[in-house]
Design a protein that fits this description.
The chain is built from 23 helices and no strands. It is an all-alpha fold. The chain has one domain: Sodium/glucose cotransporter (Up-down Bundle). The longest helix has 49 residues. It binds pantothenoic acid (PAU) and sodium ion. Sodium ion (NA) binds next to helix 16. The site of pantothenoic acid has 13 residues, from helix 5, helix 13 and helix 18. Its main location: membrane. Keywords: Cell membrane, Glycoprotein, Ion transport, Membrane, Sodium, Sodium transport, Transmembrane, Transmembrane helix, Transport.
Length: 569
C-alpha cells in the first residue's frame, strides 16, 4: 500500500515539488504582466483580442495545439488505452485531412475577410440572426467545455493525493483569469507556448521513469503484447461500434474540422497571424506536435498497463474511476524522485490553464464583436477594451460555476469532452459548411438547420446517457447483443457525433431553403463554373453574399468574378 491518499503528493520528496508548481503559476503571471506593460499596453481591442495581428507561425502553432489539449486528454487517453487497447491511437489518421482542410478552405476565407469573430462570416453570408445563433451556440459549447477542463485535474489529484479539490479549482480559475485579463491574446499565446513545453516535459518524464521502473522497453512491450493491448486496424463498418478505424479516422476528421476549422478559439489564432501564409503554416505545424501529444499519452497508457497488468489497483484506491487511476500510476512511478511529481502536476495544470485561457479570450471576443459592438457602434475604443477585459474576467468566474456542474456528471472525462465537441461543435460546423459549400442555402434554412441539428444532437446525446450506450458495451457482453429501434439510434458511436450533427444541419438547411425560396448565388461558385476552379482566389469561391451586394450576382450569371478585395484593409 502506497498510502498516497493520506500522505499527500509531495510529502516524500519535499519542497522542490511545490517550488516547481509555484514557478509555473508565477511564470504565467509574469508573462501576463509583461504584455500588460509592453507594446501598446493593451489599450485597444485590436491588441487585447487580436494580438495586433502580428504573430509568427511558431507560437501560433503551439498555441493551437494547446487550446484543445487539456488535462482531459493527458489523463483520459492513458485511461482509455489501459482499458481498451491502442485502437484510439487511430484518431491520429484524422489529423491529416482534419488540418489540411482548415488550412486550405477555412483559413483563406476567414483570413481574407479580415473579420475578428468567425461568426461575422455568418452575417456576411446569411443574416444577423444566423450570426447571433452561431455565436450563442459557440458560447454554450465553450462554457460547458471549460468547466470540464478546470474540474478534471483538480478532481484527479484530489482522488489520489488529497489535494484540496475546490481550492485547486479556485486557484486555477483565478490565476488564469488574471493573466488573461491583464495580457490579452499575446499573453494567452505566449503562456500557451511555455505551458505546452511543460506539458510535453511532464509526460516524457512519466514515460521515461515508468519504462525504467517496469523493466525497460522490451519488458513493457512484452507485457502489453501478452496483455492484448496492441489493437489491429478494426474495419467494422457498424456505426454503433465505439472505436473503429471509421469512427476514429473518418468521424475524427469532422471533430477536427469543428475544432480547427470553425471554432473561434482557433480561428482567432489564425487571424492573429501577420500574414495568411503564416496562418496556413502554423496549421501545418500543428500536425507533428499533435501526433507527438497523442503518442505520448498513448504510450503512457501502455506503460501503465505494463505496470499493473493483471492486478487492478482500483480497490486500493477506493474508486473505480480510470481517470483517478492514471494519477495514481503517475504518483506511484514518480514518488521518491524529487521534483518529478511537481513537474507532472505542473504538466496537468499547464494543459488546463492553456485551454481555459483560450476559452476566456475567445468568449470575450465573440461577446464583444458579435453581441455588443454591432449595437453600440459609437462606443469608444478605450471603453470597448475595458469592457472586453471585464468580459474575460466574468467568463473566468463563470468557469468556476461550470466546474461544479461537471462535478455532478459521471462519465470518463475524455468521453464527456469529445461528446460536447460533437454535440455542439458539430452543428456549428454544419452551419459554416452550409454557407460555404451550398449556394442555395438561405438564412431561414440556416436557422432551421442549426435548431434541428442541435435538437437531434441533444436527443441522441442525452438518450445515450440514459441508455448507457454511445458505443460502449459492458465488458461481459460478447457483442451478440444488438440494440434495436431507438436504442440503436442512441448507441451511435460518440465519435460520429460531429459528422452526424453537421450533416443534419446541412440536410435540414437545404430542405428549408428550397421550400422558402432558394437563393441563386451561382456566379462565384467553382462547381458550377469550372473556369473558377483554376483561379487562385479562394475568397470568391465561398463568399456569395458580399459579391451579391456588389451587384455581380444576377440570376444564372456565370461570368467569372472580378478579383476585387472584399473589404479594403
Ligand atoms: C481534440 C483532440 C481529439 C485532438 O487530438 C485531442 O486533443 C483530445 O482528445 N482532446 C480532448 C479534450 C481535451 O483534452 O480537453
Ligand atoms: Na491546453
Amino acid at each position: 500500500d502506497l498510502g498516497l491518499s493520506t500522505l499527500g503528493p509531495f510529502s516524500q520528496t519535499g519542497v522542490v515539488d511545490y517550488v516547481i508548481f509555484a514557478v509555473l503559476l508565477a511564470a504565467s503571471m509574469a508573462i501576463g504582466l509583461y504584455y500588460a506593460l509592453s507594446g501598446g499596453r493593451q489599450r485597444t481591442t485590436q491588441e487585447f483580442l487580436m494580438a495586433d495581428r502580428s504573430m509568427h507561425c511558431l507560437p501560433v502553432s503551439l498555441s493551437l495545439i494547446a487550446s484543445f489539449q487539456s488535462a482531459v486528454a493527458i489523463i483520459g487517453v492513458p485511461g482509455e488505452i489501459y482499458t481498451h487497447g491502442t485502437q484510439y491511437w487511430f484518431i491520429g489518421c484524422s489529423y491529416i485531412l482534419g488540418l489540411l482542410i482548415p488550412a486550405h478552405v477555412f483559413i483563406p476565407v476567414l483570413y481574407r475577410l479580415r473579420v475578428s469573430s468567425a461568426y461575422q462570416y455568418l452575417e456576411l453570408r446569411f443574416s444577423k440572426a444566423v450570426r447571433i445563433c452561431g455565436t450563442l451556440t459557440f458560447i454554450c459549447q465553450m462554457v460547458i467545455y471549460m468547466g470540464v477542463c478546470v474540474y478534471t485535474p483538480a478532481f484527479a489529484l484530489n482522488a489520489v493525493t488529497g489535494f484540496e479539490l475546490w481550492g485547486t479549482v479556485l486557484a486555477t480559475g483565478l490565476v488564469c483569469t488574471l493573466y488573461t485579463t491583464m495580457g490579452g491574446l499575446k499573453a494567452v499565446i505566449w503562456t500557451d507556448v511555455f505551458q505546452t513545453v511543460v506539458m510535453f516535459a511532464g509526460q516524457l518524464a512519466v514515460i521515461m521513469v515508468g519504462v525504467q521502473r517496469t523493466g525497460g522497453v522490451s519488458e513493457v512491450w512484452r507485457k502489453v503484447w501478452e496483455g492484448n493491448r496492441i489493437s489491429g486496424l478494426d474495419l467494422n463498418p457498424d456505426p454503433t461500434e465505439r472505436h473503429t478505424f471509421w469512427t476514429l479516422g473518418v468521424g475524427g476528421i469532422f471533430l477536427m474540422l469543428s475544432l480547427y476549422g470553425v471554432n473561434q478559439a482557433q480561428v482567432q489564432r489564425y487571424l492573429s497571424s501577420r500574414t495568411e501564409k503564416e496562418a496556413v503554416r502554423s496549421c501545418y505545424m500543428v500536425f507533428p506536435s499533435l501526433q507527438l501529444a497523442l503518442a505520448l499519452s498513448c504510450v503512457m497508457g501502455l506503460v501503465m498497463f505494463a505496470r499493473y497488468c493483471g492486478e487492478d489497483p482500483s480497490d486500493k484506491l477506493g474508486t473505480s474511476s480510470r481517470d483517478a487511476m492514471v494519477i495514481y500510476f503517475v504518483m506511484d512511478m514518480l514518488q521518491g524522485l524529487p521534483g518529478l511529481p511537481g513537474l507532472f502536476v505542473a504538466c496537468l495544470f499547464s494543459a488546463a490553464l492553456s485551454t481555459i485561457s483560450s476559452a476566456f479570450n475567445s468568449l470575450a471576443t465573440v461577446t464583444m464583436e458579435d453581441l455588443i459592438k454591432p449595437y453600440f457602434p459609437a462606443m469608444s475604443e478605450s471603453r470597448a477594451t475595458l469592457l472586453s477585459k471585464a468580459l474575460a474576467a466574468s467568463y473566468g468566474l463563470l468557469c468556476l460555476a461550470m466546474a461544479y456542474l461537471t462535478h455532478l456528471m459521471g462519465d470518463s472525462v475524455l468521453q464527456v469532452a469529445l461528446k460536447i465537441f460533437g454535440m455542439v461543435g458539430g452543428p456549428i460546423l454544419g452551419l459554416f459548411s452550409l454557407g460555404m459549400f451550398f449556394p442555395w442555402a438561405n438564412s431561414t434554412g440556416a436557422v432551421a438547420g442549426l435548431g434541428t441539428g442541435l435538437a437531434v444532437a441533444f436527443w441522441v446525446g442525452i438518450g445515450s446517457i440514459f441508455t448507457r450506450s454511445s458505443g460502449a458495451r459492458p465488458l461481459q457482453d460478447n457483442s451478440v447483443f444488438r440494440p434495436t429501434g431507438l436504442k440503436r439510434f442512441y448507441s451511435l458511436s460518440y465519435m460520429w457525433y460531429s459528422a452526424f450533427n453537421c450533416f443534419t444541419v446541412i440536410l435540414i438547411g437545404l430542405i428549408i431553403s428550397f421550400l422558402t425560396g432558394r437563393q441563386v448565388l451561382m456566379c462565384a461558385y467553382p462547381l458550377y463554373n469550372p473556369q473558377l476552379l483554376f483561379t487562385n482566389s479562394l475568397n470568391v469561391y465561398f463568399l456569395f453574399r458580399p459579391y451579391e451586394r456588389r451587384g455581380c450576382n444576377t440570376r444564372n450569371n456565370l461570368s467569372p468574378v472580378r478579383e476585387t478585395p472584399l473589404f479594403s484593409a
